[in-house]
Design brief:
This protein has 303 residues and is α+β, with helices and mostly antiparallel strands. It has 2 domains: 43-53 and 67-141, no CATH class; 148-302, 60s Ribosomal Protein L30, Chain: A. Helices cover 49% and strands 12% of the residues. The chain has 10 helices and 7 strands. The strands form 2 sheets. The protein has a 5-stranded mixed β-sheet. It has a two-stranded antiparallel sheet with strand order 1-2. A hairpin with a 3-residue loop joins strand 3 and strand 4 (177-183). Helix 2 (42-50) packs across helix 4 (97-109), helix 3 packs parallel to helix 5 and helix 7 (200-212) packs across helix 8 (237-255). The longest helix is centred in the middle third of the chain and has 47 residues, at 116-162. The protein starts with 14 loop residues before the first helix and ends with a helix. Residues 54-83 and 92-107 have low confidence and may be disordered.
Length: 303
């Protein structure tokens, strides 16, 4: 018996494949429409991403300030207490200032879950953190400034000894500057503001000392005792003290290569005594010209 001849298969894909393809296309269009109709809050996503900025956490590259643990606002977003003030104190650009305010707003928009008592507590913690940080920074500034002033004091003392003028200069220092008090009776005649000829060599040595610190801020202050002046040229002790400070300024500028913009001049008359005006010895101490040489740290702060 002869075998039945098999029917050759039809060319192309099977019929069920066409139906399956149509179904997949319909599902794809359905999900595309769903995605297109959804409203994504891109701004909120950007805020969340901004919270991972390095400056928003408790690590700063300079390592100069240690920040406390942040408060959880919402959705894992961290807000550090007083971050703006801390960054400004240490000189870091507060680029995340807007982000911190925005993150606080996000927390409110997401449910207003924080109570008034909690908000008050967080505010007090923020103030305490900023206050402690500012205090620590001021203490550090004072400590470093005192160290620099002490070094300057030792250097200037050695110079006055080598110039043999240490017995004519009263020196002192603090965390801001080193002061050199010059006796007014040695520099000027009574009621006058012109430097005496016999102390010009002495003033040349003072100018040499000042030139070593020409990059620092230097203040020249004139002071007098409380005895009223009787002169037609100078109407008051304050005017006389200002004229004497200006005379010292002009002389040292001619003798040394100083930077004019770094020098300040002031006359205080009898308003800032260093001794009692009840005795002649005290009045003699108050008649003086003070030269304050600021250390480099405080010079930079003033600039």
């Amino acid at each position: 018996m002869a075998k039945r001849r098999e029917k050759p298969p039809e060319e192309g894909s099977p019929a069920w494949m066409a139906t399956f393809s149509d179904l997949m296309n319909l599902l794809l269009c359905f999900f595309v429409l769903l995605f297109a109709s959804s409203n994504m809050d891109e701004e909120k996503i950007q805020r969340i991403m901004a919270s991972f900025n390095q400056a928003s956490f408790s690590i700063i590259e300079s390592g100069a300030v240690s920040l406390l643990e942040g408060q959880i606002v919402s959705g894992g977003v961290t807000q550090l207490p007083g971050i703006e003030s801390i960054l400004e104190e240490i000189g870091v650009a507060s680029e995340v200032e807007g982000d911190n305010h925005e993150m606080s707003a996000v927390g409110k928009d997401d449910g207003e879950t924080e109570q008034n008592d909690d908000e008050t507590l967080v505010g007090e913690q923020n103030e305490q953190t900023v206050e402690m940080t500012e205090k620590e920074l001021k203490e550090e500034l004072s400590e470093q400034g005192l160290k620099q002033s002490e070094e300057m004091y030792d250097e200037i003392s050695e110079m006055t000894e080598s110039y043999k003028i240490d017995d004519r200069v009263v020196m002192d220092y603090n965390s801001q500057y080193v002061s050199l008090d010059l006796n007014g009776a040695i520099l000027f005649d009574a009621g006058q503001a012109e430097i005496r000829d016999d102390v010009r060599v002495f003033m040349q040595k003072i100018a040499t000392i000042m030139s070593r610190y020409k990059d620092c801020i230097i203040e020249i202050e004139g002071h007098t005792d409380n005895v009223p002046i009787s002169s037609s040229r100078y109407e008051s002790n304050r005017v006389l003290s200002t004229a004497r400070a200006n005379e010292v300024y002009k002389y040292v500028m001619n003798q040394a290569n100083l930077i004019d913009e770094n020098i300040k001049i002031a006359g205080y008359g009898e308003s800032r005594p260093v001794a009692s005006n009840e005795t002649e010895e005290g009045r003699a101490k108050n008649r003086r010209v003070s030269i304050k040489i600021y250390n480099r740290l405080n010079s930079e702060v003033q600039e």
